[in-house]
Design goal:
heterodimer; A: alpha+beta; 31 strands; flat; B: 367 residues; mainly alpha; three-stranded antiparallel β-sheet; 3 strands; globular
Amino acid sequence: MQSTSRLLVRKRIATLFLLFTLGFFILGGRMFWVQFVRGAELSEKAAQNRTRDVPVESKRGIIYDRNGHDLAISVSADSVYAIPAEVLASKKEQEIAQKLAAVLGMDESRVYDRITRQSSFEWIKRQIEPELSQQIRELDLPGIGLTEESRRYYPKGSLAAHVLGISGVDNTGLEGIDYYYNDLVGGQKGRIVIEHDAANRPIPEATHHYVPPVDGANLILTIDETIQYIAERELDKVFKERQAKAATVIVMDPHTGEILAMANRPTFDPNNYGDYPDSNRRNWAISNAYEPGSTMKITTAAMALQEGIVNENTPFICSGSIKVGKETIGCTNRRAHGQQTFAQIVENSCNVSFVQVGLTLGMEKYYQYLNAFGFGQPTGIDLPGEAAGILVPQGRAKQIDLATMSMGQANAVTPLQLCNAVAAVANGGKLMKPYLVKKVVDQSGNVLQENQPTIVRQVISEETAYRLSMILEGEVINGTGKNAYIEGYRVGGKTGTAQKIAPGGGYLPNEYIASFIGYAPVHKPRLLCIVAVDAPQGYPYYGGWVAAPVFKNIMQDALRYLEEPLYKDDSAEQTLPAEEMVVVPDVVNLPLEEAAALVRSRGLQVKVNGSGNVVWQQTPKANTRLKPGQQVIIDLSQVDKTSHGGPVTVPDLQGKSMREVAKILADLGLHLMPEGYGLAYQQSPEPGKVITGGSTVTVKFQPIGE
Amino acid sequence: MRLKKGPPDLILFLTALTLLGIGLIMVFSSSAVTASVRYGDAYYFFKRQVLWSIIGIGALLITMKINYQKLKSLALPAMIIALVCLILVVTPLGIEVNSSNRWLGIGSARLFAPSELAKLAVVMFLARTMEVNIDRMKDFVKGVLPYLTIIAVVCGLIMLQPDLGTAFVVAATIFFMMMAAGARASHLIAIAAAGAAAVVAAIVVAPYRMARLTAFLNPWKYANEEGFQTIQSLYALGSGGLFGLGLGRSRQKFFYLPEQHTDFIFAILGEELGFLGAIVVIALFLLFAWRGFKIAINAPDNFGSLLAAGITVLITFQAAINIGVVCGVLPVTGITLPFISHGGSSLLFTLIGVGLLLNISRYSMNR
């Protein structure tokens, strides 16, 4: 009995040993898994857990227009931070809080709370004024540091806002060009990596290194600031006068696809975009697909001419309406146009005849050209959020669809798509890829990216394109586009008054999109421009009345600005050849060297009167036309301006820093009465006013951002 | 019974000394930062551990010399003393640390932890009573119920501190000793099931245990709360990789890993010495188990076998649980790693246990 139990005890103990051996093997296996298999991953996580980054912001690149005027810049300001562990280690947290609170004008208990918080890094105040950061630097408080942060600033306010887009508080592009090119423009954030213990004390001999930020590259846009400004100005006018829902303008170089201006209403100020409804930031020009109406007839005409179905003189008869299947399509007010040539149906925008043209072309050909002109697919412009437009699917299109799309209904296109398609007519038949950024240049001047004009395809022949251009000129001279006529230039174009689709199907009874698209000079196009106004109030709401005048004003100013020579009709007698005239630039308030260079660049002579280094008056005035070689007299500010008290023209100080303002005013002999700090946003007297030297100019400044 | 005395088990002795040596090094390495911040002396914990090691080895040498047979008569008094101490510790005489009463001492000076004494006393007491009772082990009323009562009383007292981890180790040791003593498999399974139910109940009634369990099941979700220790422990082990960061180069000991010189010392060991260091320690415990159970099997009588098996289980089971917690396969229980972790009374009683094992090995029948 005794021996049986003895044996059992021994066997049981042996079993226990096996059990424990198994247990330790499992533990060994688990250790292998944790340390060897998952080691790298866990070790990475552990390191992240132990390190804290102090961010060092990179500066976003500057966005320039095509002539080097800055449209979006980065301004930097110091931000104050605390490393609470160091503050606590100094044992002077009360004193530090008190001093900081005094300089920054903050509540002392709040500062104390932040600098003693259980964290490795705390912002105290971000983007403070330079004087304050200097004071803090001089205080040299333990555990308190300053780091430079930068923020986008748009010196021209809402100019080209939809193109430039917006940047967030963390200095990344959120919309527009700033978003599309964020990788290049944003640069790379730098950081200071500090490994620390769980109580936030730096670990001895630990990782502790500085990664400097790489500043972003600069962008040079195809946008021309002046043309953009002209477009914005005219758009403002029509938007306000006609109380429209929205409006858009695109100005393009039809030969290259470069966008020179792109503006939308409603708009916003990217500096304070939060103050505007989100919908204001929508870039109508590229994201809104609409049924374009008669402007689309240009492409139908191009197809017919190219296919040889018609020529300029092919006769058409319009009885006021035409039956397609069960439906009846009519011209405006069912008014019969009677007998017309092909050129005349374009001038009269005759729906009935265009339906005939379209039906003759046939479904297959029509879609073939529609695709060739780039409809139904994005143009590929370098902006985010471009719409593709909506075409009636070819497989489902019926004769009635073909009929209505021939006159510009049924298919939805974006203003940019239409613009690009018509550019193919203007430039001799080539569909171009539109673009907004000419060059990306890094901080050391290396070109990182350069966008060249890209031909997508030849859509129609050069001859067809030229013949159609001539017809479109006739439309402006004789047809619905008369209000687009610009004296001194040959203009071709087409009006459009599109019905708007109602949300539930069908068309809205009283809302239209009035548009005009055209280019000039028609025989050798320099600029192409589309104007579309959504739901203008009042009568007449037709494209020819609402949009054509806008087109005319923009093109007239833009062509003159570009010094496009006036058209010289061989039959006309002109006293002075326009080509030989040059426009006098505005040099008032410019430094002497710059003013003289500008005048000479136009082929004019400079005569300098007086001494000093800033121009205060010029003769003749800006925008006067002179023959090359004629003289512009530049009067400089007087040496002793204050005592002299001579008249001084008040310069535009908008967007300048206090120091710049002070220097400019001092040079002009004026006194500065500053209010606030930051950049100038308001001044009294207004720019352009002539006041006596020695007077005081009150300038209001506001900080950038917060 | 008069037995012939032989030499003690040298392998077991060397294994224990090696573990003790590794322990001393790791206590210094893991506690230096905490010690210098908290006490201004990097050697604070190390010095205490050295002192206790010396005391412990002294005790080991003494217990090794006395014939273990004489312990039979000491079993009951030791058990009574242990129970008294366990009761005293939950009275105002106990020292409260982290809302647990685990130490007896004068003022705030901790002398010893009664549960460490209790562990050894229970093993001795069980070995004694089981030897007498060996033929009735298969009887539920006479062979099983008395031991369940002991589990209930001892573990109940330990739970008053409260110290679930130690209670669990004691209960498991009693269970394994019942198994060694020849209890019926069906009884053992029933007890295990009931024990599991008791553990579940203990977890459900205490919110902090529930939180620990949830955190154990999904540590990453509770990385900043209850899962914190497990996560930081895994970070440490993972950082160690195959060869470790090198002795003294742990990063996690900079206050990331709590209890870095006690409950989680094995994580720092894994971080500094890598998988190779950790596997060596595990192998040493396995070696210890082998020698311990071998001594138990070769002991001249059932008292010696059960005593040796009990001591071996006590030490290696606790080691396995501790390592299991560190590598994240068991929930955080708060028990230390024998030989390695800092802790005076734990080390003292562990070494006394080793002394007893060596003592029994001298009377081995199989040489």
